[in-house]
Amino acid sequence: MTPLETMSEREFFADVGRRPGMFVGRATYHAISSFIDGYDRHAMRDGGGWLTEFHDWVLRKRGLKSSPLVWSGEVLWLAFPDGAFRASAFDLTADENAHAISVLFELLDEFLAEREAAGDGPANA
Q1: Where do runs of H (alpha helix) occur along 1-125?
Q2: Which of 59, 70, 88, 89 can pair with 30 through a Cys bridge, CB separation 3.0 to 4.6 Å?
Q3: Could you tell me the pTM of the whole model?
Q4: Residues 26, 94, 98: CA angle, nearest 5 degrees
Q5: What is the CB neighbour count within 10 angstroms for residue 64?
Q6: Which residues of the chain have pLDDT under 70?
Q7: Do 33 and 89 contact (CB within 8 A), yes or no?
Q8: CB neighbour list of residue 34: distance below 8 Å, 6 or more residues apart
Q9: CA-based R_g, the chain, Å
C-alpha cells in the first residue's frame, strides 16, 4: 500500500472507497458525502479543493448547466436515474446506500483521473 504522505487524491479516494466504514463508521451515503465535504473544506485552507469543479463535472454528465442541488444530490440522480431513491440521503436503504456509494467512488475515480491526465491540481492529498 502507498504511504498516505505520497498518495495522490485518486489513490486516497480509491482507498476510502474500498473500506468506507473505516473512515466514517457506518458506511452510509450521507456519511461518505460529509467526509468528502470535510476533506474538501480542509483542502481549501491549503489552496486546494475541487468539489465545485466536481459538481460542474457531474452536472455535465447529467446534461445540465445548472441545478439547485449540491454535488451529492446530483450524484444520487446519476446513481438512480429513474428517481427510484428516497427523498433524502438520510432515508436510503442498505442496498441503496451501497449502490450510491459505489457510484460515487466510480465517479470520483473518473473525475480525478481526468484531473490527473490534464495536470490539474496538486498530485498529492
Answers
A1: 9-18, 20-24, 29-45, 51-62, 71-79, 94-118
A2: 89
A3: 0.85
A4: 80
A5: 13
A6: 1-4, 84-87, 121-125
A7: yes
A8: 24
A9: 14
Q: Are 62 and 74 in contact (CB under 8 A)?
A: yes
Give the cell for residue 46. 491549503
DSSP 8-state secondary structure symbol assigned to residue 69? S
3-state secondary structure of 117: helix
Alpha-carbon distances of 47 from 6, 40, 43, 44, 50, rounded to whole Å: 18, 10, 7, 5, 10
Query: Which residue, among 108, 117, 125, 114, has the nearest Cα to 55 in the 3D structure?
Result: 108
SS3 65: coil
Give the whole-angstrom CA distance, residue 118 versus residue 14.
19
Residue at grid coordinates 441503496? 96
Cα distance between residue 6 and residue 64, in whole Å? 35
Q: What is the pLDDT of residue 5?
A: 73
Q: What is the pLDDT of residue 125?
A: 40
Report the SS3 class of residue 125: coil
What pLDDT score does 124 carry?
Answer: 43
